[in-house]
Amino acid sequence: MIALRGLLAGPGRAVVVLAVTQILGWGILIYPPVLTMPHLVADRGWSLAFGMAGFSLALVISGIVSPIVGGLIDRHGGHVVMAPGALIGALGLLLLAVTDAWPLYFAGWVLLGAAMASSLYDPAFATLARLFGSSARRQIIFVTFAGGFASTIGWPATHLLLEHFGWRGTYLVFAAVMAFVVAPLHGFALPRAAARAEGAVPPGPHLVPQQPLRPEGRPFLLLAMGFALHALILSGVTSNLLAMLERGGLSGATAVTLGALFGPAQVAARLIDFLLAGRTHPLWIARGALALMGAAFATLAFVGVSVGVAGLFCIAFGAANGVMTIARGSLPLLMFGPQGYGRVIGRIARPALFVQASAPFVVAAAVERFSDAAVIEFGMVAALIGVGCFMLIRAPRTADR
Question: pTM for the whole thing?
Answer without folding.
Answer: 0.81
